[in-house]
Write a structure and sequence with these properties.
binds zinc ion; globular; six-stranded mixed sheet; 248 residues; eight-stranded mixed sheet; alpha+beta; 16 strands
Length: 248
Amino acid sequence: MTIHLMNCFTDNARWPSNMKTGMVCLLIESEQGLILVDTGLGTRDYSDPTWFTQFFRVITVMPFDVNEAALNRIRALGFDPADVKHIILTHMHFDHCGGLPDFPHAQVHVHKREYDAFTGKSFNWKNAAYIPRNLAHKPELTLYETIDSKWFDFDAIRLPFSPEIYFIPLFGHSAGHCGVVIKTNDGWFLHAGDSSAVYNDTTPKWLIHLVLGPHDARLRKFKQDHPEVLITNSHMFPEFFDQHSTIS
Ligand SMILES: [Zn+2]
């Protein structure tokens, strides 16, 4: 079993200008074929960007390089994108699922609350990041809601894969946001999505709470108590990708 960490969306802050991030998307070589966790922007976001992506190009600094699309990252690793059979989504904001149309035959796994928020009619400022065209190809969807497991002291939902993979419901940043936990050869790897910023000690706590939801303090404590568990968030500093290009 191998997990490849790919930066599928570089997005740097205008201020402070030294705050640079790439988006952690995972390519898991599983017994069920290749599994992608989050997609970053898709190729259409580069060729035909939505107003929302254009808005982010103004308020942040994006190299906007189509080679960062998961489709191209996977090709660069030597895999055939058609072999991606499953896509697990932490949530459905534009920068996490824009690449879904690049894998039209992949089965999409997401929490039911997130899908309901994505397809719901209620508009608020957070829902603006849901871009309907990312599901226009009508992929096969598997929706999850029932807690059936524990992972440490977190409620968890087992996904039908080997190695073991779980959703950890961490609602707040979006309605049905989940972390994704993967069993590795040596232990566990937690992709906490946009639920926290556990490597960031400069952003004020109130701002993290406002944007990412209520789980940051708990995940920081967990990281302290369990140094054996590798944790990532979605938006990570560039060196992280060099330090962890593959995990097995
Ligand atoms: Zn998000």
